[in-house]
Amino acid sequence: xxxxxxxxxxxxxxxxxxxxxxxxxxxxxxxxxxxxxxxxxxxxxxxxxxxxxxxxxxxxxxxxxxxxxxxxxxxxxxxxxxxxxxxxxxxxxxxxxxxxxxxxxxxxxxxxxxxxxxxxxxxxxxxxxxxxxxxxxxxxxxxxxxxxxxxxxxxxxxxxxxxxxxxxxxxxxxxxxxxxxxxxxxxxxxxxxxxxxxxxxxxxxxxxxxxxxxxxxxxxxxxx
Amino acid sequence: xxxxxxxxxxxxxxxxxxxxxxxxxxxxxxxxxxxxxxxxxxxxxxxxxxxxxxxxxxxxxxxxxxxxxxxxxxxxxxxxxxxxxxxxxxxxxxxxxxxxxxxxxxxxxxxxxxxxxxxxxxxxxxxxxxxxxxxxxxxxxxxxxxxxxxxxxxxxxxxxxxxxxxxxxxxxxxxxxxxxxxxxxxxxxxxxxxxxxxxxxxxxxxxxxxxxxxxxxxxxxxxxxxxxxxxxxxxxxxxxxxxxxxxxxxxxxxxxxxxxxxxxxxxxxxxxxxxxxxxxxxxxxxxxxxxxxxxxxxxxxxxxxxxxxxxxxxxxxxxxxxxxxxxxxxxxxxxxxxxxxxxxxxxxxxxxxxxxxxxxxxxxxxxxxxxxxxxxxxxxxxxxxxxxxxxxxxxxxxx
Lengths: 224, 399
Fold this sequence. Notes:
By secondary structure, chain A is α/β, with parallel strands linked by helices.
């Protein structure tokens, strides 16, 4: 296992939402006040019942959702003190995010989907070759010229994983990355995440997948 | 593939959607440019007519039921003639406030063996004329000689060829610039030539002269009023003190035309405004709906690290491309239609109709393009603003 070193730290983050009820408007905490740490080279499995705030916490940690309270530090830098442009650039350069559901962009080929995050801020260089290698690791290299409409749910999930890893991120945020996959492909994806952690990345894996614990360094249960 | 090429790729991947939006913009632009050119051509035609009328006052024989006949000849393009004694030129010239006078002579050719075609023939005195001669100067640069004619733009016949009126051959020495008025269907000559032609028509029993002497008649007297005098006062004076003639202000003759033009321009303007409002509304709604449909796509771009303004720029760029392509197509359609059918339009409207110059049309086209781009940016700005504020985490969780 890689040596631990804090890269992302959430201090007292809380997310409150406003919900219009039938009788009266009211606020509720999607994530109650929470501290959370991600360290380099570790894969942290985050579990919890539905509605426990796993995805909300992940969104706050990756810079997509401003916490109601608390701070998110990335190498000591307050993530939400940055303006949108800088925070977005940081997300692209240092984070790889695998959102829930099917998220490939419909107008791009599989290959273009995978390398788009890289070319947003960088010259393409040999990124196509690296994208093909990643697709091969995840068992979908032969689909590189296909469009997402031609793919199964599981294939799309693996493309989202490849896309998150293309920039060789310091932190990977994976939200239910094995949701539509069979055992074989689940193992492929979890191994890819494990490999990223072994290469030095911090990986936050939100999942209900039983098999994930075998790949995780640490387990965090929310809602307890 | 990067964020800069993403909009073009997106447009290519949805040809029907792209074509639909382009057609909308093209419709908007062709309506705006076409309508503007129609209105501009009518205004140009009126200005051209007023320039050709040139004189402040037209004096014609009272017996010619002046305004009707003059309007027929000068505005409606119906060939005709009427005459009065030449002495009226001097009588009118002596009226206080009259700065310049020049006679004109009208003769209508007929569709018969004696004439090549039925046209209005107008004789002028190049020495004194101040309405037609400047126009002839522009195309010919010399004074017309006996036996020579300058023809309007709509008359068939090349320079150097001959045209036959009442058994006399005339050489076409110039083809005049298009004016968009009835004068484009007329032939112009000097006093000696028109006298010869009137004699020829008399010989053939067609023109009827009041005193039987073609050398001693005129059709109208064109009057330029001294700037220190009031045109209406001079007109009234001539009508009161010079017997046997009727003086008409040129403006009175063009007022009817101007009024018709104002009516048509108003209708065209309203139609353009209706098309404009409809097209902009449809465009706005279409982009808003498309923006909503693409919320998840834009949320994914945000997740991948695109800042909110870059995501908004994707939509605005797509719309700018669509607007530019649609505008160019619409401009091309409008220009081709106007160039191809301006003659038919002139006939259908029955009003002076003169297309603006090429530089003017180019400026109109550029303004239309700029307007289309502005509409494209503005209509997408609302959707883009909404997208820029999108909560990517919420949208992706809702999927």
